[in-house]
């Protein structure tokens, strides 16, 4: 596997990943080699794989409670789920992805890194997938869908009081305003925009946070590992 130079201060990456920095570096190598070859990452992304992808996702860890059960929906190349699992080994992480070729790649990468991470092929709107992962503390997503659609998929997976963390871009505020009514109708609270990684990534990562405020009346299932 090709060597990938850190495009950021190594001290910054070490602050985020600690003694798991070698694993984070190996994950970056997977992204810019087989990830590009198999169409999970665009070839132009390789020079900025750390600041735009790996660190950009890992800094979301500052929003996660200790030992959280996290479901990453539409995981694709494992973003943000794998960087979060690397930065926070206390987390219980599941990567849910519908496309077989992406699932195969995720299985290979998770095995190579030796991570205790589940990979599940499926669509989060499918009842069987919901049954497997409902009761999560956190659902994450990056570049998956507009907020109203994402909330419809993610909120049923969360326990009451759990939170959707949607990594968004510059249009986050417009999206929050546009979809506020739909999100509340789906059982979510008022969305909050949070900037993560100030002083670590530039610009900081924009995250839309939505808490599930209404439940279904069914007990949350806490552990399927």
Secondary-structure class? alpha/beta
The total beta strand count reads: 7
Q: What's the helical proportion of residues?
A: 25-40%
Low-pLDDT segments: 216-225
The largest beta-sheet arranges its strands as 3-2-1-4-5-7-6
Rg, please?
17 Å
CATH superfamily: Vaccinia Virus protein VP39
Counted up, domains total: 1
The third-level CATH topology is Rossmann fold
Q: Calculate the mean pLDDT score and round it.
A: 91
Oligomer: single chain
Task: Annotate the secondary structure layout.
Elements: H1 10-17, H2 21-32, H3 34-37, H4 49-58, E1 69-73, H5 81-87, E2 92-97, H6 100-113, E3 117-121, H7 127-133, E4 136-142, H8 147-154, E5 158-168, H9 172-185, E6 192-196, E7 205-211
Parallel strand pairs: 1-2, 1-4, 2-3, 4-5
Antiparallel strand pairs: 5-7, 6-7
Helix pairs in contact: 2-5, 4-5, 8-9
Q: Nutshell version of this structure?
A:
This protein is an alpha/beta fold and 225 residues long. The chain is built from nine helices and seven strands; from the N terminus they run H-H-H-H-E-H-E-H-E-H-E-H-E-H-E-E.
Structural account:
The protein has 225 residues and is of the alpha/beta class. It has one domain: Vaccinia Virus protein VP39 (Rossmann fold). The chain is built from nine helices and seven strands; from the N terminus they run H-H-H-H-E-H-E-H-E-H-E-H-E-H-E-E. A seven-stranded mixed beta sheet has the order 3-2-1-4-5-7-6, sandwiched between helices. Helix 6 links the parallel strand 2 (92-97) and strand 3 (117-121). Helix 2 runs antiparallel to helix 5. The longest helix has 14 residues, at 100-113. Mean pLDDT is 91; it is low at 216-225.
